[in-house]
Amino acid sequence: MVVLLMLTSAAWAQAPTAPLPPPRPDRPEMPEPEPGSDGPPSTEVPAEKTADENSAHGACLERLSKLGLRFEKRPPVQEGRCSIENPVLLSSLSNGIEVAPASLMACPVAESLARWMSEVVAPEAERQFQSAPTKVLIGTSYQCRDQRNGAKLSEHALGNGVDIMGFEFAKRSPLTIAAQSENSPEATFQSAIQKAACPIFNTVLGPGSDAAHGDHLHLDLRERKGDYRICQ
Predict the structure, then answer these.
(1) What is the pLDDT confidence band of residue 127, given thresholds at 50, 70 and 90?
(2) Mean pLDDT lowest among 26-35, 71-80, 114-123, 179-188
(3) Residue 194 above 80 pLDDT?
(4) pTM, entire model
(5) Dist CA 221 CA 232 (whole Å)
(6) Among 42, 57, 93, 96, which has the minimal tally of Cβ within 10 Å of its Cβ?
(7) Which residue has the higher pLDDT, 230 or 125?
C-alpha cells in the first residue's frame, strides 16, 4: 500500500503543466508601447501645421496693418468646394486709395494688391498723368465658380484672384481697362502696369491675352511647379 501511494505521488509530480488556450480571435492583443512612451500609440492628428498656418495668417494681417490698409478680418469661408482660409474684406489701400467696392479676398492677395498699387500703379500714374490714383475699381474678387472653360476651380473661388476694371485719379478722368489708343498715355500706362504686375502676381491676364480678359486685368497668386508664371 505504501509503495502504491509513492508511485501515485511520483506520477503527479512528473505530469506536465497543461498548456494555456490560444487568445480569442475577437480580442487581439494590444501592441506593446514604443520605448519611452507612456502608453499605446496616439491617434491624434499633429497640430503643427495648424499652428504654422495660424502664425502665417496672423503675420499677414499684421503686415496689412503696418501698410496702412483698411480692412476687416473675416472668418474662414467654406462654400462647397470653394473656400478662403484667411479672408479679409479690403476697403482701402495705402495713401487712402479706395477699393471699390470693398472686396473679400485672401490676405496675401490684399498684400500683393497693395504692393502693386504703391510700387507700380501710383508711380506710373504720376509719370503719365501727373496725378495720383484715388480709387481702384474691382470687378470680381471672391466668387464661388469654376474657370471660364470649366476645367477646374477658379482662383476666385479660393479668394486668390482679383479683377481690376479701372482706376480713378485726383486730377483727371477715370481710366477703364480696355484696348487703348496706340501710343497714348493711357496705352502706355496700362501696358506698364500690366507688365510690372508679373513679378508680384503669378497670373496676369488682360487686354491682348484673350477675348475674355479684354476689359479687365486678372491678377492671382496661383502656385505652380517651379514658380511658373503666366503673364499675358
Answers:
(1) very high
(2) 26-35
(3) yes
(4) 0.76
(5) 15
(6) 42
(7) 125
Map the chain to HEC letters: CHHHHHHHHHHHHHCCCCCCCCCCCCCCCCCCCCCCCCCCCCCCCCCHHHHHHHHHHHHHHHHHHHCCCEEEECCCEEECCEEECCEEEEEECHHHCEEEEEEEEEHHHHHHHHHHHHHHHHHHHHHHHCCCEEEEEECCCCCCCECCCCCCECHHHHCCEEEEEEEEECCCCCEECCCCCCCCHHHHHHHHHHHCCCCCCCEEECCCCCHHHCCCEEEECCCCHHHCCEEC
CA dihedral angle for residue 56, residue 59, residue 63, residue 66, rounded to 10 degrees: 170
Cβ–Cβ under 8 Å, residues 148 and 121: no
Alpha-carbon Rg for the chain in angstroms: 33
Phi, psi of 147 (to 5 degrees): -60, 160
State CA 89 to chain mean position distance.
15
> Cell numbers of 169, please?
485719379
CA–CA separation, 175 and 118 (whole Å):
17
Can you give the length of the chain in residues?
232
pLDDT of the residue at 214: 87
CB atoms within 10 A of CB 106: 27
